[in-house]
Amino acid sequence: VRFMQLDLASLRSVRAFASAFLRQEPHLHLLINNAGVSAGGTTEDGFSLSFQVNHLGHFLLTQLLLERLQSCAPSRVVIVASRAHCAGRLRPDTLGRPPPGPLSTFQDYCDSKLANVLHARELATRLEGTQVTCYAVHPGFVNTELFRHAPLWLKPLFLPLVWLFFRDAAEGAQTSLHCATREGLERFSGRYFADCRLQEPWPPARDDRLARMLWEASERLVGLGGSGGSPSP
């Protein structure tokens, strides 16, 4: 196990990590984009915190490592999404900005999870024939530190439900591990899994035009060129 620092709330940190990783590691067969946060605020890059950590940071990381994944094919990308994608709304003119309204933090999280599912869908389309496959997964509702930023008044109401009904982290990892290691999943590249089974996501998450729009907007927001994984000058 090698520990390397990576802060997804900083695109500068993502680039530094990718550069260091590519120098040190000649092989990459599996990338699991697992990090997630549900919190308000903005990043040093000017994007809403949840949307950058959950989607934009992972999008940039994946693109910067994509050539190495292709050279080591067969390889896989697993993107941890959520059933919360069903409440997501993505608009190209407001992408990356905190949503308005009293439920801004929750909406931002849902938007980022819809982006995760669409990212896997479009990535699969662009990688067809390369032996690099990708999958979006819903891990279930898992008792991790995801909700550590919840308002203080909400925690006494919410935390008992978490302890009673949510999965522990080991149980929550099962679908990600299934998509990372199960043989014969290649024909399902770009699809959505929950409880270690193929499932259909919410209709907006199956919208190829929306997936393409998100991809192009994400490239622009993180400073990538029109194709490939190299940052624009």
Descriptive account of the structure:
InterPro entries: NAD(P)-bd_dom_sf, SDR_fam. Keywords: Oxidoreductase. Belongs to the short-chain dehydrogenases/reductases (SDR) family. This is DHR13 reductase. GO terms for molecular function: oxidoreductase activity. A 5-stranded mixed β-sheet has the order 1-2-3-4-5, sandwiched between helices. The chain has helices spanning 11-24, 49-71, 104-126, 155-165, 169-172, 174-181, 208-222, and strands spanning 30-33, 75-80, 132-138, 192-194, 197-199. Helix 2 packs parallel to helix 3, helix 2 packs across helix 7 and helix 3 (104-126) crosses helix 7. Strand 2 (75-80), helix 3 (104-126) and strand 3 (132-138) form a beta-alpha-beta unit. The protein is built from 7 helices and 5 strands, in the order H-E-H-E-H-E-H-H-H-E-E-H. It is α/β, with parallel strands linked by helices and 233 residues long. The chain is globular and about 45 Å long. Residues 227-233 have low confidence and may be disordered. The two termini are 34 Å apart.
Order of helices and strands: HEHEHEHHHEEH
* Distance N to C terminus: 34 Å
What would the principal axes of the Cα set say about the shape?
Answer: globular
- Fraction of residues in H or I helices: 40-55%
* Structural class by helix and strand composition: alpha/beta
Rg calc: 17 Å
Based on the structure, what is the oligomeric state of the protein chains?
single chain
Let me know the largest β-sheet. Answer: 5 strands, mixed
Q: Poorly predicted ranges (pLDDT <50, ≥5 residues)?
A: 227-233
Count of strand segments: 5
How large is the share of residues in beta strands? Answer: 5-15%
Overall pLDDT confidence: 88
Strand order of the largest sheet: 1-2-3-4-5
Question: How many H/I helices?
Answer: 7
GO molecular function: oxidoreductase activity
Pfam families: adh_short (PF00106)
Keywords: Oxidoreductase
Protein name: DHR13 reductase
